[in-house]
Amino acid sequence: MQKQVIEFGGEPVGIVIPDEDRLKFIAVKFHVIDLDEQRFNSADEVRLAIRDLVRSRNLAPTAHV
C-alpha cells in the first residue's frame, strides 16, 4: 500500500495513507472534513463514503430566513 490522492468530481479532496493494515483518509478540502482521519479498507470505500457524505448534504433541508 502506498499513499494515494483521492479525487471527487475531478478535484483532489484528500489522500489516503497506509495505517494499521488499512488506509487513513486525510482531508484537504473542507467539504469532506467529516471523514478526516477515518480508516477504510480501500480507496474505493473512501470514494463511496465521500459520495454518500456529499449526497446527504445536498439532500439536507436548508433553513429559510
Task: Give the assembly state of these chains.
Answer: single chain
Taking pLDDT < 50 over at least 5 consecutive residues as the criterion, the unreliable ranges are none
What is the element string, with H for helices and E for strands? EEEEH
Physical arrangement of strands within the biggest beta sheet: 1-2-3-4
Query: Helix fraction?
Result: 25-40%
Query: Which outline best applies?
Result: elongated
Mean pLDDT: 91
Distinct helical segment count: 1
Query: Nearest-angstrom radius of gyration?
Result: 13 Å
How many distinct beta strands?
Answer: 4
Distance between the amino and carboxyl termini = 48 Å
Tally of discrete structural domains: 1
Describe this structure in words.
- The chain is built from one helix and four strands; from the N terminus they run E-E-E-E-H.
- The protein is elongated and about 45 Å long.
- The longest helix has 17 residues, at 43-59.
- A four-stranded antiparallel beta sheet has the order 1-2-3-4, covered by helices on one side.
- Strand 1 (4-8) and strand 2 (11-19) form a beta hairpin.
- The protein has one helix spanning 43-59; strands at residues 4-8, 11-19, 22-27, 39-40.
- It has 65 residues and is α+β, with helices and mostly antiparallel strands.
- Helix content is 26%, strand content 34%.
- It has one domain.
Structure at a glance:
The chain has 1 helix and 4 strands, in the order E-E-E-E-H. It is of the alpha+beta class.
List keywords for this structure.
single chain; 65 residues; alpha+beta; 4-stranded antiparallel sheet; 4 strands; 26% helix; elongated
